[in-house]
Amino acid sequence: MSTKPRAVAALRHTRKLLTDIEGQLGSLLVSLRQPQPCIDIGAADRLTGATAKAGCALAALDNLRW
Predict the structure, then answer these.
(1) Using N-to-C axis directions, what is the helix angle for 3-32 and 43-63, rounded to 10°?
(2) Predicted pLDDT at 11
(3) Average pLDDT of span 52-56
(4) Separation CA 23–CA 5 (nearest Å)
(5) What's the CA gap between 47 and 41, in Å, rounded?
(6) Residue 19 above 80 pLDDT?
């Protein structure tokens, strides 16, 4: 696979992961704003996992040769 298609694929993957993090953070904020906040116990683990995946995707972008 040439560099340009790899770069496009990496950008799409990174965008997907960052959008996932944004959605999870939005959900956490909604939960925290409730009169009696009740956060899903697995939320922190999911967010940590998504953050790690996004970090790997961003690192992959750094490794591409433009």
Answers:
(1) 160
(2) 83
(3) 82
(4) 27
(5) 11
(6) yes
- Please report which confidence band the pLDDT of residue 18 belongs to, taking 50, 70 and 90 as the band edges: confident
**CB neighbours (10 Å) of residue 54?**
19
What does pTM read for this prediction? 0.62
Give dist(CA 30, CA 54) in Å, integer. Answer: 23
Domains in the chain: boundaries: 3-63
Kindly state the average pLDDT of the residues 33-41: 81
Please name the residue ranges forming H helices in the chain.
Answer: 3-32, 43-63
Which residues, 6 or more positions from 6, have their beta carbon under 8 angstroms from its beta carbon?
A: 64
d(CA 37, CA 56): 32
